[in-house]
Amino acid sequence: MIIFISGGARSGKSSYAESLCMQLARPGTPLIYLATARPLDAEMKQRIRRHRQGRARCWQTIEDGKDLNRVLKHCARGSIVLVDCLTIWLSFLLFEEGLPVVHILAKARRMLATARQKQLTLVLVSNDVNEGIPPADHEVARYIYALERLHRLCVAEADHAIQVVAGQVLSWKGEQRWTGSEA
């Protein structure tokens, strides 16, 4: 099963995703937290530290902001994998690695195919950044365009698409309505 969760900055999407994964887990199901952030500055170091401290001990944390598919290939069949977040993963591949969007989308397709093949529950968290006035800056516009293409791909493949707005969970795709803790 693939679940896509989006929301604005500090909307509660990550805590909701963690709660949902734990709700879906059966005893003995591996819970893998695939964190894409890298500690490049003091603020990001603090955010990573805060996320680590707030995460329940049942999670196996893997910090890899580059090759998500490689990590998924090594996960046990049936694992629950939370990827937090696609926004940072995309920015790394687009700006630091200099990959064209078509190559990034191909990587995402391989990741989604691996999740299906290994019967993983893959929960993808990403930021909504295209809610306002179109940016004048070319690089920002290029990033938003790439992120929206990535979002469309993931939602098309997802069994469920959820948006978190101000801590409220809105289900956009999928029959299941989880009643567990809100964001």
From TrEMBL:
<comment type="similarity">
    <text>Belongs to the CobU/CobP family.</text>
</comment>
<dbReference type="GO" id="GO:0009236">
    <property type="term" value="P:cobalamin biosynthetic process"/>
</dbReference>
<feature type="active site" description="GMP-histidine intermediate">
    <location>
        <position position="51"/>
    </location>
</feature>
<keyword id="KW-0418">Kinase</keyword>
<feature type="binding site">
    <location>
        <position position="84"/>
    </location>
    <ligand>
        <name>GTP</name>
    </ligand>
</feature>
<feature type="binding site">
    <location>
        <begin position="7"/>
        <end position="14"/>
    </location>
    <ligand>
        <name>GTP</name>
    </ligand>
</feature>
<keyword id="KW-0067">ATP-binding</keyword>
<dbReference type="InterPro" id="IPR027417">
    <property type="entry name" value="P-loop_NTPase"/>
</dbReference>
<dbReference type="Pfam" id="PF02283">
    <property type="entry name" value="CobU"/>
</dbReference>
<feature type="binding site">
    <location>
        <begin position="52"/>
        <end position="55"/>
    </location>
    <ligand>
        <name>GTP</name>
    </ligand>
</feature>
<dbReference type="GO" id="GO:0043752">
    <property type="term" value="F:adenosylcobinamide kinase activity"/>
</dbReference>
<comment type="function">
    <text>Catalyzes ATP-dependent phosphorylation of adenosylcobinamide and addition of GMP to adenosylcobinamide phosphate.</text>
</comment>
<comment type="pathway">
    <text>Cofactor biosynthesis; adenosylcobalamin biosynthesis; adenosylcobalamin from cob(II)yrinate a,c-diamide: step 6/7.</text>
</comment>
<keyword id="KW-0548">Nucleotidyltransferase</keyword>
<dbReference type="InterPro" id="IPR003203">
    <property type="entry name" value="CobU/CobP"/>
</dbReference>
<dbReference type="GO" id="GO:0005525">
    <property type="term" value="F:GTP binding"/>
</dbReference>
<comment type="pathway">
    <text>Cofactor biosynthesis; adenosylcobalamin biosynthesis; adenosylcobalamin from cob(II)yrinate a,c-diamide: step 5/7.</text>
</comment>
<feature type="binding site">
    <location>
        <begin position="35"/>
        <end position="37"/>
    </location>
    <ligand>
        <name>GTP</name>
    </ligand>
</feature>
<dbReference type="GO" id="GO:0005524">
    <property type="term" value="F:ATP binding"/>
</dbReference>
<keyword id="KW-0808">Transferase</keyword>
<dbReference type="GO" id="GO:0008820">
    <property type="term" value="F:cobinamide phosphate guanylyltransferase activity"/>
</dbReference>
<keyword id="KW-0342">GTP-binding</keyword>
<keyword id="KW-0547">Nucleotide-binding</keyword>
<keyword id="KW-0169">Cobalamin biosynthesis</keyword>
<feature type="binding site">
    <location>
        <position position="63"/>
    </location>
    <ligand>
        <name>GTP</name>
    </ligand>
</feature>
<protein>
    <recommendedName>
        <fullName>Adenosylcobinamide kinase</fullName>
        <ecNumber>2.7.1.156</ecNumber>
        <ecNumber>2.7.7.62</ecNumber>
    </recommendedName>
</protein>
